[in-house]
UniProtKB/TrEMBL annotation:
InterPro entries: DUF928. This is DUF928 domain-containing protein. It holds the Pfam family DUF928. Keywords: Signal. Residues 22-45 are annotated as: Disordered. Residues 1-21 form the signal peptide. It comes from Zarconia navalis LEGE 11467.
Amino acid sequence: MKRGLAIGTALSLILITPGHAGANRNNSDDLPPNTGGRSGGSRGCSYQSAVNSSVPALVLLAPARSRSQTISTRPTFAWFVRDRESLPMEFRLYEYDPVSSDAKLVAEILDENFKSAPGIMTLSLSETMPQLAVGRKYLWQVELVCDRHRPSGNPFADAEIEVVAPSPALDDRLERAKNELDRVALYEEKDLWYDALAAVLRDSSDSQLENWRSTLLDRVAQGEAESEQFQQSHIHRIQR
């Protein structure tokens, strides 16, 4: 199945490097294959990195094969990069049509300063990016660009996200929460994965939040090797 989708017009905002628009894309309406949030095998951008690690080169920090929820219309996305070499990255966000389940590209980041760093990377969507719509479902994808001329060899992964409206009761409880720790507990109680993860990755000074971060990272890790690398990762924060 091809990974490309036709570029949609609604909510469209594309941040690209001039001359590279569509370089790695096909004119297709097919969704990317479901990767379970992991790049294929342990393949990276060099033979040596693939030989030396059983951990995938790229892991999206989202529960595998489930559409996790958020109450934020500008959520934070997070992923793990294994290899130390800094590589160009590409980020894409697709929106599912609520009737047909077809998908269209609504945002894309291809700028020359968007590069990988080893460890956990977080991407926060600012006012310059499209605001997600409550009640809509999306698919997000990260790609490491090993070779722009051979995109089929680039490690990539995708995951799904659904934006939901908070209930009045949850709004009230969040407003009355004394601190971020209380809010994380509420997010976890309501299965709001992206909100909980964003909170624990944003603030690392509180020991109790560190415990929450460890718990959430273990939830997406597959095996001890992944868990160890996630837990020891430096966090790199990006905003677009």
